[in-house]
Hints:
Chain A is mainly alpha-helical.
Amino acid sequence: xxxAGLTKDAVVRAAADLADRDGLEAVTLSALARRFGVTTxxxxxxxxxxxxxxxxxSAFCLEESADLLAAAIxxxxxxxxxxxxxxxxxxxxxxxxxRYAATRRPALPDGHAIPAGRRxxxxxxxxxxxxxxxxxxxxxxxxxxxxxxxxxxxxEGSGAFAHSRPSASASWNAILDALxxxxxxxxxxxxxxxxxxxxxxxxxxxxxxxxxxx
Amino acid sequence: xxxAGLTKDAVVRAAADLADRDGLEAVTLSALARRFGVTTxxxxxxxxxxxxxxxxxSAFCLEESADLLAAAIxxxxxxxxxxxxxxxxxxxxxxxxxRYAATRRPALPDGHAIPAGRRxxxxxxxxxxxxxxxxxxxxxxxxxxxxxxxxxxxxEGSGAFAHSRPSASASWNAILDALxxxxxxxxxxxxxxxxxxxxxxxxxxxxxxxxxxx
DNA sequence: TAGGTTGCTTAAAGGGTTTAAGCAAACGAC
DNA sequence: GTCGTTTGCTTAAACCCTTTAAGCAACCTA
Lengths: 214, 214
């Protein structure tokens, strides 16, 4: 009886790849067992069940994307940091749709995804640090950021923007400009001249390199 | 052999109620068959399969919410129409989480949900009519609206705002104010003085009656 | 009232999850 | 090195869900 030599980590990584390849609904214990040449019941040696696997997958993908976020935000502030954060999310979702879908699953209480989720919230607050928002407005801003970014990505991913002009990326740029302007308008320091049209505020030019118009 | 007397419509309505009660994942042909006192295979007399049922359910809920949207928007314009539209979506999602979840499923090509989805897009454009946006900015605005509203509702529904202050409704109001201000800023007619803080633009007061702080 | 249509049934196959019991490979201790 | 324990896996079995096929009986219509 040769052992397959699985580990918890290998299982979660295989689940992530399977999710990207065939969709999150396709990640199933029996599909993974098939891929590893192992019986389905054997998977229970590494994972407590499907729910546990999905929770671990969610945590794994949240940590992975949090690493990307941290790297992208480092050394940036204000609108640049916000644009970098948004771009990481969208790029991650487009490059890894299954992994991204895993991050959007509601985290189960006391599950592995909870600390990873908190990390994302912390990173969002870090990206907003320069604005000097008061506590309440900071929470509003974090929620506005999350709503807009994840809402757009969700709609884009479900093909809602596929069959109409202008391109999704054009709207993405316009929306990010508006988002940055709104938050700047909430800021006590950057309060002098909120931009009034789709023109970007001075000091950033996100449109030129945000995802290349597709 | 007494017949249960089912119809396609009764099945879809039962599916909608089941979705609200137990979640969209719980709507299954066998669960519905159980509820009707019928064998699972018997459901195939009314529905081509689970996929077909979910597509019909999605269309049903989209039509239902579109009726609410149409009624709420009628007689309103500008920020009032936008606020009314947003409120309908959030209220619908909170009163009928399963039905709302059904509306968020990606519509399958040539499925029943396609025309209903188009109706939603048309209603969003109607709500924006007064702003007199050019074609491109109108598309941006529709996408911004959808991203923000559905993004917020999705995060709220998954409990992301549950354990922190201020309340989700406070953020909702702040976000809607910002949204209206952004769109007003894109408008050629309402272009004089975009609001610069969370203060609402003149002529609306959404905060007072938007869902009662919970 | 004699059709045909249609709303159901039984039967069966296939895929997924999960638990229980057991065996053998790997590992740590001596 | 072998011994005992741990652990990675297997087989077996129960349960749930979907879907197709075949058939029968209730209902509608002519």
